[in-house]
Write the structure tokens for this entry.
Amino acid sequence: MTDKSIIANINKTFESRIRLGIMSVLIVNDWVSFSELKELLDVTDGNLSSHIAGLEKVEFIEIKKQFVGKRPNTSFRVTNTGRKAFQEHLNALEELLKNRN
Amino acid sequence: MTKETENHLDTIMDIKSLMEKSTSFFSISGLSGIYIGIVALLGLGSLFYLPLSLPVEDYFDIHTVNVTLPFSDIVYLAGAALSVLIISLGIGFYFSKKKSEKSGRELLNKSSIRVLVQTTGPLVYGGLFCFALAFNNMFGFIAVLTLLFYGFTLLNISKHSLIEIKFLGLSQITLAFVAVIFGYELVCWGIGFGVLHVIYGILMYRKYDR
């Protein structure tokens, strides 16, 4: 992938507030469950699922499914790729702010 | 500041606040709300069966000031209030601990303890203030003040917890105002600490705990 397309990809992924939110949470926590994300971001099941699918598609997060007793429990963790991309995005935002001011 | 810059600033602030929130999050179980509401209503109901010197409504009436209550009254009222408080705290922690165990997360870590200490200030000061009022025979204000201070505390906690807590807190504050302006203090108290807890508890349980 060329530099340009990486940037384009990154920007597109983080255009959604919710995806940004998911990444923000995963950056500072280890494995976070689906329900915890739902509580933190105050979104519906379907909405959260679709954004998670999007992030998994670009390999920014990884998924772990296990059973807690009888209940299925899905949790997520940021990948190194995702961490890097998010950090770059943050840096870019701060850079943009610095230049405007 | 251009719109774009404002957007970027907002985004960064959102990111940072979510980072903070997620590490100090206080996850509250809806089940505790339901049981706390029931306990509060039971506590309220028990007052009608205790040998009190005044009709129960009078103890909630904000006009009951400069009235010296017999010591037995104070014992019964304080006893009922403390029982409800202690049992409610126990219920709250029990169910929230169970819930956090399910998600494999520690309910009380360094961050959430810090949040707890920071946010329950109004509760402590409110409680002390109510004691001071009691010493001065101004009992009538205590009931509505408990609604008010509890509402403040919930608003504080809500920043580090579920959004429903914020609405619950606002409801309590509203009820305090309604009680002072229109009367019906006993009913408002019962709705605030009883009915609303059950309703929000059910809502939260259905939304988050299943």
